[in-house]
Amino acid sequence: PILASAHENGCIYLWSIQGSLLKEILPFSKYPPVPLTVLRTDISTKMLLAGSKEGHIMRWNIVSFLEDPQNSKNQIKEELCWRAHSTEVVDLFHEEQKNVVVTASVDGSVRLWHALNGCYLGYFGQPRKFEFLDISRLILPCDVNNFPIIIKEESKHMEKKKKFEYPLVLDKDK
IP5PC-F beta-propeller domain: which residues (predicted)? Predict the structure, then answer.
């Protein structure tokens, strides 16, 4: 068994039952570290999910690390980061059958997200039924304007799901 703790400095620490520190994880982001407010794993402990004070959700693959925590080659891979709320995330969980992450915020909203790509599925209290099959539409809640960021393992850089380019062009006729 391994214990995980989330901290004010934005780090996650993984501990052995004996109390020795096994690993320190700092979320890979273009933003400075922010306090983490919630930490969960799925039932099969394949993924680790964390929520932040600024409304972000981060997802790591922890399978190879848990197989042999002492082996330094077995890494924890951050795979996805998305903005779920405009305020602090107070709770979250992963529903494995539907592959959905449910998040709750201090603003009182409870939202559903696709666990593998961070695609927004809806919120509790909406008039329409949840569509779990159509994850191709990239819609966002009204208070969030950033699409999920997929973190590429090989290059250790971030890639946004959709890129929009708005170059400035000087038109002398106008």
Answer: 35-114
Helices (H) and strands (E) in the chain, counts: 1, 13
* Domains of the chain from N-terminus onward: 35-150 (2.130.10.10)
Instruction: Show the tokens assigned to 20.
Output: 């020795």
CB half-sphere exposure, 11, CA atoms < 13 A: 8
Cα 86 to Cα 46, 55, 105, 136, 159, distances in angstroms: 27, 5, 8, 23, 21
What is the length of the chain? 174
SS3 72: coil
Give the span between the Cα atoms of 5 and 12, in whole angstroms: 6
The label of the residue with tokens 């690993």 reads 23
SS (H, E, C) 28-41: CCCCCCCCEEEEEE
List, in order, residues 6 or more apart from 135 with CB less than 8 Å away.
114, 117, 119, 121
SS3 call for 160: strand
pTM, entire model: 0.77
| Token pair in block for residue 26 | 């700092």
pLDDT digits (tens, 9 = 90+) for 125-156: 777 777 766 666 667 777 777 777 777 654 34
DSSP annotation of 130 reads P
